[in-house]
Amino acid sequence: MRITNATLTVPKSDSRSWLERVGRELSTHLRAGRYPLRAAIARLTDRDAVIECTFVELDSRDPYRECFTDIELTSPRLKDHQDERFAVVQIVPTGVRCEIGGFAGDACPATNLLAAAADVVITHPNAVNASDINEMAGNVLYVEGKSLDDFLLGHLGLAPTRSNRIGTFVDPTGKAYLDEVVHTLNAARAVAGIDCASYTVGASEIGARTVWSQSGCAVGTVLNPVAILDSVQQLLDNGAHAIGGVSVIHGVTAAEFSQHLSGQIPNPSGGVEAIITHLISKVFRVPTAHAPLPYYADVKERGTHNPRASAEFISTPHYLCVLKGLARAPRLVPVERLDHVAPHLVTLNSVGAVVMPASCLGGIPALAAEFSAIPLIAVEENQTLLSVTNDEMKMRNVIHVKSYLEAAGVILALKQGLSLESLRRPIGCATRLENAIPAAEACA
């Protein structure tokens, strides 16, 4: 099994939805044994959209090959209806230098504000993880990014749960920090009552390494993905319901870490951590999240003047936030169809809005929202290094807002069924439609 990164293009001039265009282009590159682990439109030219994607390459002898046969991205399902529960999906993309959420958990206040306006908020660990801190509201569902993509593509339902038994895998490269990891597990058990007693140290190194894409995003690669999956299988066989992991991230320089702390470049570890958890999500369909062991031990500055980055400095394994998130993360339930789902499940039919930065509307959540005509609230103040805006994408479901404060107001209006037009001034008069030509005359 190998992880590869690639760049593809799709034409801008096409009447189909963006999700259909991206799915069709990926299909032409999906020979046997190749699976698209992640894909996003990273930039647009005058004629084309440029897709940056990560593939899993498998040979005929790979023990996990059969787990990659179903490709959700090329077979999306339409939302069937809006059910009574009004859920909002909050997306803070990893590795794109978000102004809000590009550091350790600094999108958590915005997430909790949205949660106060919605019945349920579904978000990914990147939005709320902050080293030893995870202060997400009680009605926030903690869902790994790949599972969140597949949820929005209509292939997964979320089953809220009271408690998960968490198993932890440790990259053997980080054995020097094993005491800190075990202390974190024991503290979570003794103080927070979290069921997380089991861990395993992998038989071989994972080889997680940061990689930078053409657009300047932090992506990454994993040299030994099977080592991750074998460790996860051991933990699941021992009774785990959810999987956390800690790995050393290689390849980060002192200059890069300093630039990240000052907000000049994305968090170097975000992209490769996503690859690790995407793999686990796809193969095992269990809640999962990851934290980096101190990949910057020799390059870390002694202090920071950026409050958004301060959580980086209060812990060695950065792992307690993961345990707090996974403790009540919803179980993942495959969904065969959206016109008949179990009432206890949160599904695509529950989603009333998707919220994300206005400059990165090329990820799967945005494309899935357009495909199912779900309002996509684009927050302009949450700037990123990308320029994939709706001026270029031209999606009809986008609602522009300045801030998360305004986004919360839009969610309240949508939840109450209020027309946004009715809340703004000036308000125009009703429009009269001209009578259609009778069918008989049209055929004459």
General description of the model:
- The longest helix is centred in the middle third of the chain and has 15 residues, at 178-192.
- Helix content is 27%, strand content 21%.
- The chain is built from 13 helices and 17 strands.
- With 444 residues, the chain is α/β, with parallel strands linked by helices.
- The mean pLDDT is 93.
- The protein has a domain at 2-74.
Keywords:
444 residues; alpha/beta; 13 helices; 21% strand
Give me a quick take on this structure.
The chain is of the alpha/beta class and 444 residues long. Helix content is 27%, strand content 21%.
Summing up helix and strand content along with how strands pair, one would put the structural category as: alpha/beta
Q: How would you classify the quaternary structure?
A: single chain
How would you state the average pLDDT, rounded?
Answer: 93
Strand content: 15-25%
The secondary-structure element order is EHEEEHEHEHEEHEEEHEHHEHEEHEHEHH
Query: Segments where pLDDT lies below 50 for 5+ residues?
Result: none
Shape: globular
Largest sheet properties: 6 strands, parallel
Give the proportion of residues in helices. 25-40%
- Number of strand segments: 17
Distance between the termini: 63 Å
> Number of helix segments?
13
The order of strands across the largest sheet is: 6-5-4-15-16-17
Rg from C-alpha positions?
22 Å
